[in-house]
Amino acid sequence: MSDADLEEIRKARLAQLQQQGGAASNDKDDQRLLGSKKAAEARNSILAQILLPEAADRLGRIRLVKESRATDVENRLIMLARSGQLRSKVTEEQLKELLGAMAENNEKEAPGKIVVNRRKGGWDDDDDLEGL
Question: What number of H helices and E strands is found in the chain?
Answer without folding.
Answer: 5, 0
